[in-house]
User: Fold this.
Amino acid sequence: MDLLLQFLTNTGYYLADYRNLIMIVIGCLFLYLAIAKEYEPLLLLPIGFGVIVGNIPFFKGFGLGIYENNSVLHYLYFGVTTGLYPSIVFLGLGAMTDFTSLLERPKLMLLGAAAQMGIYFTLLSGLALGFLPKEAASVAIIGGADGPTSIFLTAKLAPHLIGPVAIAAYSYMALIPIIQPPIMRLLTSRKERLIKMPEPKRTVTRKELLCFPVIGIILCCFLAPASIPLLGTFFFGNMMKVSGVVDRLAKTAASSIIDIATIFLGLTVGASTQGDVFLTPKSVMIFCLGAVAFSIATASGILFAKFMNLFMKEKINPLLGAAGVSAVPGSAREVHLVGQHEDPTNFLLMHAMACNSSGVIGSAICAGILWSFNVG
Amino acid sequence: MNGFEAISYYNGWAQAVAGALIVMTGLSLLALIVSQLYKIVEFSENLGKNKDSARVKKKEDDLPADTVPDLLKVDINGLGELSRPYADKLGDSFQLRELYDIFQKNSLPHPHLTIRSLREAGKIVPLGDGMFCWNR
Assistant:
C-alpha cells in the first residue's frame, strides 16, 4: 500500500499544477497551427511537442528534466546553450540559398539593412521597460525575424530567456501572413503597390556566385567578428553549393544536417519553456516587444524603400521593404501575394527573395554587433 | 530604472545609433562591391583571353616558315573543302574556339594554322562579338 502511494505521489497527475496545464495547452495550440494551418510546421511542430514534453511534471532530482544534469534532454539542450544548433542551421541555410536574385539586384540589399532597424528600436524599448542591457539585446534580436539568430544571441547574453525569446521569434515568424500584410497596406498607396520591378539587365555568372561567399564573409565578419559562428557557416554552406565540386556535402548540409539540427533545436527549446520559467510577466513583455519588433522591422523596410524612391528614376515597389526581414521565404511570399492581389501580372517574388537573403545576412551582423556591445 | 533614464544610463542611444550605422554601412559596402563584381570578373576573363591569344600568336610566329606544310601553302581551296563540313556542324555562327575543338576532335592536322590560313584567305569572316561564320 505504501509502495502504491509512493508511486502515485511520483506521477505527473499528482505533481501537476495549473502552469503545466497552461503550457501543455500552448504546446497543443502550436501543434494545431503546424498541422492544421500549416504555419511553419518545420518549426512549430518540434517546438509544440517539446513544450508538451517539457511540461510533464516529474519528481526533481531523478535526472529527467532539461535543466537537470545528466538528463538526455539536458545533453541535447547543450546544442542550444552553446549556439551549436543555430550555426548548423545556418550551414544548411547557406547550402539552400541561391544568391542569384540578390546579385542581379544589389541595391535591394539596402532594404535588408533597413529592416534591421526594428532590432534597435526594440532594444531601446526593452531598456525603457526595465530589461537589463543583455536581456534587452536578446529580446531586440527578435526583430530580425530569424529564429536561429535569436536563439544564438540569447544563449550568449541571457540564457534564462531562451524559452520565451525562441517561442516569440518562431511564433511571429509563423504569423507573418497575419502581421505583415496590414502593415504593407497601411504604409503604401495602391499606386505604389502597382509598381512593376524591371527584369535584371544581365545574367549572373558562376564566377560571381563563387566570389560572393568569400567577399561576404570577409566584409561582414571583419566588420562584426562576433557573427562568425553564424555567417561563417552560412557562407561556407553557400560556397559548397555554388562550387559544384562537393555536391554530396552540399546536399547533406541542405537536408540531413539541417533537419537534425532543426529537430533537436525545436524539441529542446520547446522543452525549456517550463511553466514556472515561462509564465511570468517578463515573458508577456517579451511577447509584446516581439510583436513591436516585427512590426517596426516591416515598417522600416517599407519606409526606406519609399525614401530610396525619392532619389531614383526607376522606382522600387515599396512592398519589397517588408521582405527585408530575415524570415525566408515566408515574407517574400507575402510580399509577392500582396503585390499579386493588386495586379496579378506583377511578379515580385524573385525581387523579394533578394531582400530576404540580404535580411538573413543583416540580422546575423546585428547579432554580432549586439553581442560585441554587451560582452562581459 | 525605466524609461528614457534607463536608456541613457545603459548607453542605449549610442548602441542603437552605432549598431544601425554599422549594419547599414556593411550592407551598403557589400551591395557596392557586388554591383561592380561583374566588371571585375569580366576584366579578369579578358585578361586571361588576351594572354591566351598572345601565347598562341607567339607560338605561330615562332614556327619557322619551312615547317608549314605544303598543303597549307598551296591548296587553300582544298583545305577549305576539307574544313567546311566541320564548320557547318557548328551552325551559321561559331566561335574560333569551338572550331578549334572540333578540328582537334576529328584529328585534323595543325588546327591553329588551318584556322589562321582560312581567316587570312577570307574563308572565315568575323561577325562581331567574338563570333565568326563561313564566307559563302
Q: What stands out?
A: Helices of chain B lie at 3-9, 12-62, 70-74, 76-89, 96-105, 111-120. Chain B touches chain A at residues 1-4, 6-7, 10-13, 15-20, 22-35, 37-38, 41, 45 (CB under 8 Å).
